[in-house]
Amino acid sequence: MHLKLQSCAVSWVLLAGLARADADDAKYKHVAFFSIDGLHASDVPKWVSAEPHGAIASLLKTGYWYAGALTSAPSDSFPGIVNLVSGAKPAQSGIWYDDGYGKLHFACPWHQRAVVYDETKDYDNTKLWSSPNPTVVGGNIDPANLPQAMVRGECINLYPHQRLRVNTIFEVVHPHGQTAYTDKHPAYDMVRGPSGKGLSVGYFPEIQSVDTTNVTQIIGYDTLHVQAFLDWIDGKTPANTEVQEALTGIPKLFGGNFQAVSVAQKSYGYEPHTVAFTPQLTTALTFVDDSLGKVVAALQAKSVLHDTLIIVCGKHGQTPVDPTLFRRVDQHLIAPAAGVTVSQVTADDVALLWLADQRDLAKAVAGLEKARATLAIQDIIYGDRLRDLGFGDPAKDPAVPDIIIVPDLGVVYTTSHAKIAEHGGLSADSRNVSCFVSNPSLQKREFDGPVSTAQVAPTILKALGLDPNELDSVKHGGDDLDVLPGF
Ligand SMILES: *[C@@H]1O[C@H](CO)[C@@H](O)[C@H](O)[C@H]1NC(C)=O
Ligand SMILES: *[C@@H]1O[C@H](CO)[C@@H](O)[C@H](O)[C@H]1NC(C)=O
């Protein structure tokens, strides 16, 4: 009798403990995450000393800074955002670049093998909005511009989200609360994940409708994203939002990007040798800092700042930081140097080559070896090394390039005279990105060790009390994809 009573009491205590642990798991009610596209890890301390009373400095006072954060390789915006929202690297996600490649079905009317998901998917990319149905999910993409694939004997239009092979944090969070995201093109439909259902609301004004070399115009463009953040915190949506279901309050998970820093880096960059910020870059940083300040103030005004984890981690950096290293090499020289039929070359501060016939690999590599000086090649990655480095196997997966060319630091394969820097490559300048998290309850900490921006996805789920194992990347990764240190 006595024993029984005791065990009753014990189980009551245990149950209470479990209930408490459950509530504790959901440490935050909301996560707001932002990519300051282009911002390097090295820019963070520089900016904080330039603007010690700014919003970023203030966020870091109660936040964790990850000084050794690396984005995906390659570091194009598309694999960069996939890293953040799914935790998957290109070999797993199938997303290598906005300008990728795949073997689509040749029986379909639109079967081109380049799988391009950028502004060319719009109805008219000279306009911010050009769709007859801008508020429909995916409605800002013109189906006539989409590649097609054969699914169960039928040619279907392949929307960007259908190209992604893994689920996203938006899909995991959506059954538990509302989700919102904004980025550069309607093609960021991709973040919805393979189900197409991850976002309650998506806001995708077309960035190419403004001059993407002009900092003033890009700040104007980014201001649309900032207004969207402020509207969401108000439980509202801006006009032309793609709506799956109307917001009923502040989304559980929301985020988006800033482009101003990236544009200022590409057009003006850093001062030679000293790598101090140029005035234009300072203008862009000031705008982003002020904008983050507005988001924090809005969260505070709604009394949800303590319940919100703010994450600022970049999709990519920019190469080179020191403009004296910049060198332009014509991307059109690459395929002829390979000396075989190349189906596709995707080039920035890296070049990805997909060969028409994979039996030509040795010949192509020999041709590129001979052109090392002309093409300023530092490294040619192919074959076993490509697989060993975790890039996947082009023999088994048509999305994987046959050859990755890594040029010397500072080389950009381009004929454009409008830019002095680019990203997409494997260098530290393109991959070492700004990454920090903040909440008023956190103690200021700095983590110096290497972390991956892929860790952001499981961290967001854990912060919201959800199971990181619901991510395909965590379940099937075999890569020990863990939450960020401190969580
Ligand atoms: C880039 O990040 C890696 C991994 O954290 C680190 O080892 C390396 O020193 C960093 N390089 C630069 C130039 O910051
Ligand atoms: C950038 O755009 C603004 C607004 O359209 C214009 O006034 C300015 O002259 C442009 N700047 C450059 C450098 O082209």
Point out poorly predicted stretches.
Answer: 1-23
Q: Which strand-content bin applies to the residues? A: 15-25%
At CATH level 3, the topology of the largest domain is Alkaline Phosphatase, subunit A
Give the CATH level 1 class of the largest domain: Alpha Beta
Distance between the termini: 44 Å
Q: Specify the CATH homologous superfamily of the largest domain.
A: Alkaline Phosphatase, subunit A
Shape: globular
Biggest sheet strand line-up = 9-8-7-10-1-11-18-2-19
The radius of gyration is 23 Å
Signal peptide: 1-23
Pfam families: Phosphodiest
Protein name: Type I phosphodiesterase
InterPro entries: Alkaline_phosphatase_core_sf (IPR017850), Phosphodiest/P_Trfase (IPR002591)
Write the layout of secondary structure elements.
Layout: H1 2-25, E1 30-36, H2 43-50, H3 55-61, E2 63-70, H4 77-86, H5 90-93, E3 99-101, E4 114-116, E5 148-151, E6 154-157, H6 160-163, H7 169-173, E7 179-182, E8 201-203, H8 215-233, E9 242-243, E10 253-258, H9 260-267, H10 279-301, E11 308-313, E12 327-329, H11 334-338, E13 342-347, E14 351-355, H12 361-370, E15 377-382, H13 383-388, E16 403-407, E17 411-413, H14 428-431, E18 435-438, E19 445-452, H15 456-463, H16 472-477
Parallel strand pairs: 1-10, 1-11, 2-19, 7-8, 7-10, 12-17
Antiparallel strand pairs: 2-18, 3-4, 5-6, 8-9, 11-18, 13-14, 14-16, 15-16
The protein binds 2-acetamido-2-deoxy-beta-D-glucopyranose (2 copies).
Residues 214, 216-217 line the site of one 2-acetamido-2-deoxy-beta-D-glucopyranose.
